[in-house]
Specification:
two-stranded antiparallel sheet; elongated; transcription; 7 strands; 2 domains
């Protein structure tokens, strides 16, 4: 009966059955169990922080709808980590029709890993003004984040139609920190 109570107590603390089996069957010291509990505590604090931020976003969206301010609904962005990536860059002002002429001048470098970015995928036309940066900045502000000055913003482009080369899908990525 004592073993069953220990299993239920560890399960209630969020440990998996494999972790519980290890704690019960392998003579784990109290110091090791203390360490496992500290790791579980840190894990739960992170989840709680993420869920609290999600709850705040839901509450803000409800307030917008209840006020009747849903005429300008903000797009749904996501917050995620980003890996370091190999990037190419050219800085010059030219007509879009001459863009391919610059490929020989491409500078390659590595963009660093970023702990948290707010990302928004969108569809654009090359000849139109894209305001997604404003939309994403408003989303960041209204969801309890702030723009991080530590890392550069990124935008990736993918052509969606080889025939109509003016239409593409892009993802704007802005580094963020919890506000």
């Amino acid at each position: 009966m004592f073993r069953l109570h220990r299993i239920l107590a560890y399960k209630d603390l969020g440990f998996t059955l494999d972790q519980i089996r290890t704690m019960l069957d392998e003579n784990v010291s109290s110091e090791q169990i203390r360490g496992m509990l500290r790791l579980k505590k840190a894990e739960l604090q992170k989840v709680l922080q993420e869920e609290t931020a999600r709850l705040a976003r839901i509450e803000e969206r409800l307030v917008q709808i209840e006020r009747g301010n849903d005429t300008r609904v903000l797009p749904e962005a996501i917050v995620k980590p980003s890996e370091s990536i190999l990037a190419a860059s050219v800085r010059d002002i030219i007509p879009r029709s001459q863009l391919s002429d610059l490929f020989d001048e491409v500078v390659r470098y590595v963009l660093p890993e970023v702990p948290s970015i707010a990302a928004l995928a969108h569809q654009c036309h090359l000849n139109s003004i894209c305001r997604v940066d404003t939309d994403l900045a408003l989303w960041i502000e209204s969801n309890g984040y702030r723009i991080s000055e530590t890392f550069p913003c990124r935008e990736t482009f993918v052509l969606t139609d080889e025939v109509n080369r003016e239409l593409y899908v892009a993802e704007l990525q802005i580094p963020v920190e919890i506000g």
